[in-house]
Write a structure and sequence with these properties.
The complex is a heterodimer of chains A (225) and B (506).
Chain A: H1 2-34, E1 45-46, E2 51-54, E3 64-72, E4 75-83, H2 89-97, H3 102-106, E5 109-110, E6 120-124, E7 130-134, H4 142-159, E8 167-172, E9 175-181, E10 210-211
Parallel strand pairs in A: 7-8
Antiparallel strand pairs in A: 3-4, 3-5, 6-7, 8-9, 9-10
Helix pairs in contact in A: 2-4
Chain B: H1 2-12, H2 14-22, H3 25-77, H4 85-95, E1 105-110, E2 113-116, H5 128-137, E3 141-147, E4 150-161, E5 169-179, H6 181-231, H7 246-305, H8 311-341, E6 350-353, H9 354-364, E7 371-374, E8 380-383, H10 385-402, E9 407-416, E10 419-427, H11 461-471, E11 475-480, E12 486-493
Parallel strand pairs in B: 7-9
Antiparallel strand pairs in B: 1-2, 1-5, 3-4, 4-5, 6-8, 9-10, 10-12, 11-12
Classes of the chains: A alpha+beta (225), B alpha+beta (506).
Chain lengths: 225, 506
């Protein structure tokens, strides 16, 4: 009997102890569980540098700038150049055909355009499409074509009213690539047809470079120089 | 006794007993284990969930921010400066990828000009905090906002000028807002995963906690059982000591206590046995000289009766003769008691007609006329005839000696729950017994009347009667009749129990 009574007293004392301990313990557990399911809102969080790419207008201290697409590690990338001849597509293509600058060569930037190609003449044809006619017998590879098209299209979009169409035709004595868009810019690509662009007609989309057989050479338009 | 008390208490206060059960060690231990396990499981689940959610959100945000900034940068190269409304609209249109998976609402601002891809999305929809950060810090920034129960990611990208030494902001800012639908689904999946992980873990913890609590409490329960056994007199109870924890120490202490008790008890028993053996030996040693003395006094008695001795010598001789007779009876009774104490008393049962047995006993002692009997015929019982004779003779002799006539002997058969019984009652019309002597009347050498020290009895008669009744698994009790006189009641089972000889002394 004495043993039983002792045990009972022990139980109540210890029991009270645990009861006192429980609420904060449970609260901590519930807090840990309940704290933030779902996706919480945040304040504004900085995430790095701003974008760049807008070339400021030329003034007395700063000459015009144009993007010339060069080859860097097998990729066609834009290089910002200062241009004494303005920022027209013609000026951009002229700079492109002049090849990389010394600084660019030093860091491994090159061009895929063969040495004998050029000079070029850039004209605007209907609906803001640019036409680049180039002399020279060497055929342009796919990379070289991309350089020409992107350089011309980028300059054109900054220069032409409404940004132009972003579509470029490249004509050389041995080659003809019609209505091509620059793959790395968003203009003229499948997702880029915004309201500012003229609606594309069926079948007039970008085409692959078409090697023209010598026997079916189109008439080369002689350019007046 | 403890057991029945506990049962009674349990029956009376069931809710309290249940409450005590709930507060029992096992439940409390299990609850403690469970709480710890729950805490661990839930904390782990919560922390894992938070980490996974953080990583998932960061990946999604980084991807979106990177993608927006990339597209803005690409479009920026195509943009003249200063841009007019058409140029801004062109930027907005070009930044929007317009794929099926991404739904971007794009707004482009330049000073007071704004262009958006979506008519119902304007600069006012962009979080003010984000616009402030983009404008003042000239840095790409993002913000998560809740709009109409949806989670949206807003990304702001300011465009800086390109060119040598020209890294200042152009003032063109592009904002993209996109619903984080995929992330909301992924987050729900994470919560599900955390819950699916935590709930089985907690359930498993419950089972484990009960098992562990049971394991911890096993020694406690063993201790409880052992204590109760010890309390019932099983002094050889020992606990198996396992391990070296506090409970093992307690078990060891229990064993020491039980061993000490057992040793003490054994020593007492040894002493008692020795004392009994001494009494038996003494009475045995007294028998031989007593037999010789009895023989001599018998011869001298005959001489005295024949008046061959002078009167003084004859009186002295008669005194010696009667005292020798008492001494012989005393020694005989002592030896009888010793046999009971040594448990050497054997029961030789025979089926008897009780009325006949009682009558024979009274007749043998010449009490037929002094005793009124009420002996119904046909009551048969399995008893030891010699011991029954001793019981009846002692009780009737006692009544005749100390009570007043008429002495009544009655016999009855009773059928009870625990079997058939024979009830033998011996009553007298004397003064009865004093209340304080009622329960001492069966003690050895007890004299109800302290002044009457020289009675003819040995003082062991009632004790021997008690032992004989007990040997039959019967009961005997002394009481006073309401109308005066003492009454002794003997109850004997009609059917002797098997193995009655080895009956334990209660």
């Amino acid at each position: 009997m004495r043993v039983r009574r002792m045990r009972t007293r022990m139980v109540t004392e210890r029991g009270n102890g645990i009861v006192r301990l429980r609420p904060p313990f449970l609260a901590a557990v519930l807090l840990a569980v309940g704290a933030g399911c779902g996706i919480p809102a945040t304040g504004a969080i900085e995430a790095g540098q701003p974008a760049d790419g807008i070339i400021p207008p030329a003034d007395a201290n700063h000459p015009s700038g144009v993007y010339v697409y060069m080859v860097d590690a097998h990729r066609v990338v834009p290089e910002l150049r200062t241009s004494s001849g303005g920022d027209s597509p013609q000026a951009a293509i002229d700079l492109l055909l002049a090849g990389p600058t010394r600084e660019e060569s030093l860091v491994g930037v090159s061009t895929a355009i063969p040495a004998g190609v050029g000079p070029a003449r850039v004209t605007v044809v209907e609906r803001g499409t640019l036409r680049v006619e180039m002399a020279g017998a060497s055929p342009l590879g796919e990379t070289a074509l991309e350089q020409v098209i992107c350089t011309a299209a980028t300059a054109g979009s900054r220069n032409l009213p409404g940004g132009g169409s972003g579509v470029v035709s490249v004509i050389t004595p041995v080659q003809r690539a019609e209505n091509r868009a620059c793959p790395t810019s968003l203009v003229g690509s499948s997702g880029g047809s915004g309201s500012a662009l003229p609606p594309r007609q069926p079948g007039s989309g970008p085409e692959t470079a078409e090697e023209v057989a010598p026997g079916r050479l189109p008439p080369v338009v002689p350019t007046a120089r | 006794m403890i057991g029945s008390g506990a049962v009674l208490r349990g029956l009376r206060a069931t809710p309290r007993a249940v409450l005590r059960g709930l507060r029992g060690l096992r439940v409390r231990l299990a609850a403690a284990c469970l709480l710890v396990a729950m805490f661990a499981a839930l904390t782990t689940a919560a922390l894992t969930y938070r980490e996974a959610r953080g990583a998932m959100l960061q990946r999604a945000q980084d991807s979106t921010v990177h993608s927006v900034r990339d597209r803005v940068q690409t479009v920026a190269r195509l943009t003249p400066f200063p841009p007019d409304q058409a140029a801004l609209e062109r930027i907005a249109a070009l930044v929007d990828p317009r794929t099926r998976t991404d739904h971007w609402a794009v707004a482009v601002g330049f000073r007071d000009l704004w262009a958006t891809t979506n008519r119902d999305f304007g600069p006012s929809e962009i979080p003010t905090e984000l616009r402030d950060t983009v404008a003042t810090r000239t840095a790409t920034a993002f913000q998560r906002v809740h709009r109409n129960g949806r989670v949206l990611l807003a990304v702001g990208v300011p465009i800086a000028f390109s060119g040598p030494g020209r890294t200042t902001a152009s003032g063109v800012e592009v904002y993209v807002m996109t619903p984080m639908q995929t992330q909301v689904q992924e987050e729900a999946a994470l919560v599900r995963a955390a819950r699916n992980g935590a709930i089985p873990a907690v359930l498993a913890a419950l089972v484990l906690a009960l098992i562990v609590a049971g394991g911890v409490l096993r020694p406690v329960r063993a201790l409880q059982r052992a204590t109760r056994r010890l309390a019932r007199g099983r002094l050889d109870t020992r606990l198996q000591v396992k391990g070296g924890d506090e409970l093992a120490e307690l078990a060891q202490d229990f064993n020491h206590t039980a061993a000490a008790l057992e040793e003490h008890d054994a020593r007492l028993r040894r002493l008692e046995a020795r004392a009994r053996a001494f009494a038996a030996d003494v009475s045995h040693e007294l028998r031989t000289p007593l037999a010789a003395m009895t023989a001599v006094t018998d011869v001298l008695d005959e001489d005295a009766a024949a008046e061959q001795l002078n009167p003084d010598t004859a009186a002295a001789l008669r005194l010696i003769s009667s005292e020798t007779g008492k001494l012989t009876r005393l020694v005989d009774d002592l030896m009888e008691i010793s046999r009971f104490d040594a448990r050497a008393a054997a029961l030789h049962v025979d089926e008897l007609d009780m009325a006949e047995a009682v009558r024979r006993c009274l007749a043998a002692r010449g009490w037929r006329d002094a005793v009124a009997t009420r002996l119904p015929e046909g009551i048969r019982a399995e008893v030891d005839p010699r011991r029954l004779d001793v019981v009846v003779a002692n009780l009737v002799g006692n009544a005749l000696r100390h009570g007043a006539p008429p002495v009544e002997v009655a016999l009855a058969a009773e059928r009870r729950d625990d079997g058939d019984w024979v009830v033998l009652t011996v009553a007298d019309r004397g003064p009865g017994l004093a209340a304080e002597t009622l329960d001492r009347v069966f003690e050895r050498f007890f004299k109800a009347d302290a002044a009457r020290t020289r009675s003819s009895g040995s003082g062991l008669g009632m004790a021997i009667t008690l032992e004989n009744v007990r040997l039959h698994d019967g009961l005997i009790r002394a009481a006073n009749r309401p109308d005066g006189g003492a009454e002794f009641t003997v109850e004997l089972p009609r059917h002797a129990r098997v193995g009655a000889e080895g009956r334990e002394d209660g």
